[in-house]
Amino acid sequence: MTDPALSGDTTSATVRDTPVAGSAAQSRSSADETRPRQRARRKHRGAAVIWAVLAWLAALVFFFPVLWMVLTAFKYERAAYTDPPTLWFSPTLEQFQAVLASGVGTTLLNSAFATLVSTTCVLVLGIPAAFALSLRPVKKTKDVLFFFLSTKMLPIVAVIVPLYVIVNRIGLLDNIWTLIILYTGMNLPIAIWMMRSFFLEVPAELLEAASMDGASLWTAVRRVILPLVSPGIAATALICVIFSWNEFFFAVNLTAVRAQTAPVSLVGFITGEGLFWARLSAASTLAALPVVIAGWVAQNKLVRGLSFGAIK
Amino acid sequence: MATIAYQTASCLYEGAANPAVDRLTLEVDDGEFIVLVGPSGSGKSTALRMLAGLEDIDEGNITINGKDMVGVPSKDRDIAMVFQNYALYPSMTVAENMGFALKMRGVPAGERRRQVEQAAELLDLSDFLDRKPAKLSGGQRQRVAMGRAIVREPQVFCMDEPLSNLDAKLRVQTRTQIAALQRRLGTTTVYVTHDQVEAMTMGDRVAVLKDGKLQQFAAPTELYDAPVNAFVAGFIGSPAMNLVPALVTSEGVQLGESTLPLERDRLAALHRQELSSVTVGLRPEQLEVVPAGQGIDVRIDLVEELGSESYVHAHLVDDRGGASTRLVARSHRRAPGRLGETIGLRHGAGSVHVFHPDTGARIDGEEMSARVGTGV
Amino acid sequence: MTKHSTLSRAEGWRRRAPLLPALLFTILVTQVPFLLTVYYSTHSWNLVRPGSWEFVGLQNYLYVFRDSQFREVAMNTVILIVGTVLISALLGLGLALLLNRSFRGRGVVRTLLITPFLITPVAGALLWKTAMFDPVFGIVNFVLQPFGVGNFAWVSQFPLATVMVDLIWRWTPFMMLLILAGLQSMPEDVLEAGRVDGAGPIALFRELTLPHLRRFIELGVVLGAIYLVNTFGAIYMMTSGGPGVESANLPFYIYQRAFLGFEVGQAAAMGVVTVAATIVIAMLALRLIFKSFMGAQEAA
C-alpha cells in the first residue's frame, strides 16, 4: 500500500530539487532542508501503517470465530475434530445437505415468514405513528414517545408467563402468528423512534409548500415526504429483520415443532448424545447468514436503530 | 513578535490536479497585519493552515523569525488561531477555553486565572467566564475565540474568516475592534477572508490569491489604484470595476461610439505588443452620468438607490459586440435616469486601466510599469 | 371561540389517527401481559397441578426474597451485565479509535468487526461452547498451548466467565459503533484548535475527545445494560445456568421456574422484582435518550 505513495514522494522530491541543482552549494542546502520534511512524513506513514495493522489484527480476532464456523461447515466431521485444528481440508457440501434434509429448511422458512410479516406490520403501524409524532405532532408527543421507549426497557421475562398462559388458552401455542404479533410489539418502539428521527430531518416547510401547491396531506406525504425518508424506511426494516430473526426467548418458549424458528432448531444440536460440529456449523451458518447480510447492508444505520435514533 | 516568510511554499492535496497553494512567496514584517483574500478555492485558507501547521508544507518552506517550520508540529510553533466556526471547546467553560493553551504550557492555575481575567476584561467577557460556549451568543463566542488567542501572547495570530458567522452589523463593529486590538498588541497577524471590504479596511497589506497562486501583494490603496491584472481589478472594489472589451485606435481605446484617450507611452506599449483590442477597466466612480450624446451612450437597465448615492446599471446602445457590454456608474444625484432611458456616461477622474485581452495582465507606460511591476 | 375549539378537536383527532393503532397495539402486547404478571404474582398457581389457583397476597415475594438461589442469580445478573458492559465499552473504545483514521480496507475491517453482533446469539453461543472452548479440540486451548495450558475445560470451570466472553464478543462491536459515531461527530476544528493551543495527542484525547465521547459512552453503557438484562440464549446454550445456578441469570432462572417447575406465581413475582430492579437503569437510559433527542431538537 505504500508503494505508489512512496514513488509519488520520490518524483515530487526530484521535481523539487531540479530548480536548485545549478550550484553545488545550493543543492546541498536544499537537501538539508528536505530532510526533516521526509523524516516527518516517514514517521507519519510508519505510525499509520502500525495503526492499520492493529485494526486489521483486531478485526481478524473478532471475526475469526465466525470464519471458523463457516470453514467447519464445509468439513467432514472427522476434519472438524482434530488437534491441532485443521485449516486445509477438502470442502464438502455434505453437511448443508444433511442439515436441510433434517428439517432445518422448514425452520428457516418459518423464520423468514415471521420476520418478513412482522417487519411489514411494524412498518405499517410504525410509519404513521412516527409521522404523528414528528412532522404533524399530536399533543403530549413527549409522553407518548416516552411510553413507547419505556416498553423497550421492560425485561421480556416480565411478560413471558402470562403470555404463555394466554397463548396456551386460546390455542395459539406453536403457531407462527403468535411470534409475528410478539415480534411486531417488540420492534414497534424501535421503528417509531428510528423513523421519527428520519422524519425530523425532513424540513417541515416541505409539507407547507406542498399544501400551498394544492396537494392534499395524503398526496404531500406520499409524493414528497415518503420518497425522502425511504432510505430510513429501508434501514428501519433491516434493523427489525435483524432483531426478529435472531429472537430466541419467545420462540423457544412458545413454539415446539410446527412453528419452530431457525435459532430454536439449533437447540437440537446440543441435546443429541454426540455433537456433530460440522453439521452444527452448517446449521449455524444457515441460521446466521440472512441477518449477517442484512446487518452488513444496514451497517451505516445500525447505530441509529440501536440507539433509538438518538445517535445519527 | 515575529516576522513570517513563505518561500515558494506549496501544498498538494492527494488526488488533486493542481496544488492548493502554488509556490507562494510572501514576507510579513514584524507586527504587520496582512490579509489573504480571494474567492473560494483560491488557497487562502490552506496557506494560513500551512503557517499554523494544520496542513503539510509539501514544497518550499515557511519561516517564523527565520526558523524553518517544515515538520514542526502546530503545538511547537507558538501560534494562536481564530477559526471560522470558532472551534470553542464545548465541554469547557469560557475561562477554561481561554486558559487551555496556558494549561498545556504548564502555567499554574492562579497565574492562568489572572491572565484569563485580564483578557476577558479587554474583550468584555468578564461576566461569562463560567458559562459553557453553548450558552453564548454568536458575538460572544467570537470574542471568546479572540480571547483564547490573545491570552497566551503568541508570536503570530492566524485568523480564518473569523467574522463570517456574524450578522452584518456586528461584523462591521467587530472588524474595527479586531484591527484596533491588533494595533494595540502589535502581534504579527495573518487574516484570511473572502470579503474584499474586510481585506481593504483591515490589512496593512493584502495578498490576493486565485487558484493557489499569488496575484498581488500590496497595500490596499495600491491594489485599488493599480491592480496588476484584470482579476485583481475585478475582485477589489464594490461595485466591481467595469471590465469591457475595447478596440485600440490611434488615440486610445474605443468604447461604443466614443474614444477614451490614452497617454502616449501606454499607446506605445499597446502597439509594441501588437494588440488591436484590450480589456478596459473603469471603476463606477470614474463614470459620470451626462445627457445622452455627451459621452458613451448607454441604456439604463436598473437604478440602485442607496440614499447617499445611486448606481446606474446600463448597457451600451451602439454595441458592435451585441448587447452584452454592461457598465455600472456611480452617481451622486438621485434618480439619474429612468429604466430604458438613454443617457451618456463620461470618463471622469483617474486614468483608465488597460489589461491584456488574453492574459489579463496590466498594461502600463514605461514609468508606470516601473512603479507597480514589483507586485508579482 | 366554540367554532375554533371544535375545529381544533377535529384536527386533533386527524393528527392522532395515524398514531392510535400503534399505541393500542403496544399497550395490548406489552402492558396487559405485564399487569397480568403482577396479578399472577399474588397467586399460588402451578400449571401442572389443576385447581391450584389461590390468592396468596405477597407470599410469593416473601418466598423470592428468602430464596438464596434467587439472590445468587440476581448477583450473577449484575456481574454479567456490569462486567460485559464495562469490558466491551473499553474494547469498543479502543476499536473505535483504531477505526477513526483512514487506512486501506477500513470498510472491510468495520464490516468484519460488526459481524459478531449480527450472528444469531444462539449460534454464537454454540460456537464458543464447542469450537472455541472445547477442552480437547477447541481453538482457545490450541492458541494457549504454548503458554502451558493443557486440555482445560473452560465452560465447566468458569461457566459465568465463558458466557461473559461470548457476550463481550457480541457487544464490543455495539459499543464500537456507538463510540465511533461519537468520534466521527467530533468537530475537526476543535481538535485543530487544541493542536494550535499546544496540546499533544494524549492531552487532545484526555481534554477534548473524551469529554465529547462521554455522552456516547454513557448511552452505550445504559443501552447495553438494558439489552443485556434480556440475555437468555447464551446461557441456555452454553451452560443451562449450571452447575446449579452458578451461571444462571434472572431470565433464565425465571424461565426454569415457569417452564420447568411450572410455578407461575413465583415466576411472575420474580419477573416483577426484575422489572423493579431494572427501573433505575431504565430511567437513566430514558433520560439519556431523551436528552440527546431534546438536544437535536434545540439544534434544529
Automatic annotation (TrEMBL), chain A:
<keyword id="KW-1003">Cell membrane</keyword>
<feature type="domain" description="ABC transmembrane type-1">
    <location>
        <begin position="108"/>
        <end position="298"/>
    </location>
</feature>
<dbReference type="InterPro" id="IPR000515">
    <property type="entry name" value="MetI-like"/>
</dbReference>
<feature type="transmembrane region" description="Helical">
    <location>
        <begin position="176"/>
        <end position="195"/>
    </location>
</feature>
<feature type="region of interest" description="Disordered">
    <location>
        <begin position="1"/>
        <end position="40"/>
    </location>
</feature>
<dbReference type="GO" id="GO:0005886">
    <property type="term" value="C:plasma membrane"/>
</dbReference>
<protein>
    <submittedName>
        <fullName>Carbohydrate ABC transporter membrane protein 2 (CUT1 family)</fullName>
    </submittedName>
</protein>
<keyword id="KW-1133">Transmembrane helix</keyword>
<feature type="transmembrane region" description="Helical">
    <location>
        <begin position="224"/>
        <end position="245"/>
    </location>
</feature>
<comment type="similarity">
    <text>Belongs to the binding-protein-dependent transport system permease family.</text>
</comment>
<dbReference type="InterPro" id="IPR035906">
    <property type="entry name" value="MetI-like_sf"/>
</dbReference>
<feature type="transmembrane region" description="Helical">
    <location>
        <begin position="112"/>
        <end position="133"/>
    </location>
</feature>
<dbReference type="InterPro" id="IPR050901">
    <property type="entry name" value="BP-dep_ABC_trans_perm"/>
</dbReference>
<feature type="transmembrane region" description="Helical">
    <location>
        <begin position="47"/>
        <end position="71"/>
    </location>
</feature>
<dbReference type="GO" id="GO:0055085">
    <property type="term" value="P:transmembrane transport"/>
</dbReference>
From TrEMBL, chain B:
<dbReference type="GO" id="GO:0008643">
    <property type="term" value="P:carbohydrate transport"/>
</dbReference>
<dbReference type="InterPro" id="IPR017871">
    <property type="entry name" value="ABC_transporter-like_CS"/>
</dbReference>
<dbReference type="InterPro" id="IPR008995">
    <property type="entry name" value="Mo/tungstate-bd_C_term_dom"/>
</dbReference>
<dbReference type="InterPro" id="IPR012340">
    <property type="entry name" value="NA-bd_OB-fold"/>
</dbReference>
<protein>
    <submittedName>
        <fullName>Carbohydrate ABC transporter ATP-binding protein (CUT1 family)</fullName>
    </submittedName>
</protein>
<dbReference type="GO" id="GO:0005524">
    <property type="term" value="F:ATP binding"/>
</dbReference>
<dbReference type="Pfam" id="PF17912">
    <property type="entry name" value="OB_MalK"/>
</dbReference>
<dbReference type="InterPro" id="IPR040582">
    <property type="entry name" value="OB_MalK-like"/>
</dbReference>
<dbReference type="GO" id="GO:0055052">
    <property type="term" value="C:ATP-binding cassette (ABC) transporter complex, substrate-binding subunit-containing"/>
</dbReference>
<dbReference type="InterPro" id="IPR027417">
    <property type="entry name" value="P-loop_NTPase"/>
</dbReference>
<feature type="domain" description="ABC transporter">
    <location>
        <begin position="6"/>
        <end position="236"/>
    </location>
</feature>
<dbReference type="GO" id="GO:0016887">
    <property type="term" value="F:ATP hydrolysis activity"/>
</dbReference>
<dbReference type="GO" id="GO:0140359">
    <property type="term" value="F:ABC-type transporter activity"/>
</dbReference>
<dbReference type="InterPro" id="IPR015855">
    <property type="entry name" value="ABC_transpr_MalK-like"/>
</dbReference>
<dbReference type="InterPro" id="IPR003593">
    <property type="entry name" value="AAA+_ATPase"/>
</dbReference>
Automatic annotation (TrEMBL), chain C:
<feature type="transmembrane region" description="Helical">
    <location>
        <begin position="258"/>
        <end position="286"/>
    </location>
</feature>
<feature type="transmembrane region" description="Helical">
    <location>
        <begin position="111"/>
        <end position="131"/>
    </location>
</feature>
<feature type="transmembrane region" description="Helical">
    <location>
        <begin position="73"/>
        <end position="99"/>
    </location>
</feature>
<dbReference type="Pfam" id="PF00528">
    <property type="entry name" value="BPD_transp_1"/>
</dbReference>
<comment type="similarity">
    <text>Belongs to the binding-protein-dependent transport system permease family.</text>
</comment>
<feature type="domain" description="ABC transmembrane type-1">
    <location>
        <begin position="74"/>
        <end position="285"/>
    </location>
</feature>
<feature type="transmembrane region" description="Helical">
    <location>
        <begin position="20"/>
        <end position="40"/>
    </location>
</feature>
<dbReference type="GO" id="GO:0005886">
    <property type="term" value="C:plasma membrane"/>
</dbReference>
<keyword id="KW-0813">Transport</keyword>
<feature type="transmembrane region" description="Helical">
    <location>
        <begin position="216"/>
        <end position="238"/>
    </location>
</feature>
<keyword id="KW-0812">Transmembrane</keyword>
<feature type="transmembrane region" description="Helical">
    <location>
        <begin position="151"/>
        <end position="169"/>
    </location>
</feature>
<dbReference type="InterPro" id="IPR000515">
    <property type="entry name" value="MetI-like"/>
</dbReference>
<protein>
    <submittedName>
        <fullName>Carbohydrate ABC transporter membrane protein 1 (CUT1 family)</fullName>
    </submittedName>
</protein>
<dbReference type="GO" id="GO:0055085">
    <property type="term" value="P:transmembrane transport"/>
</dbReference>
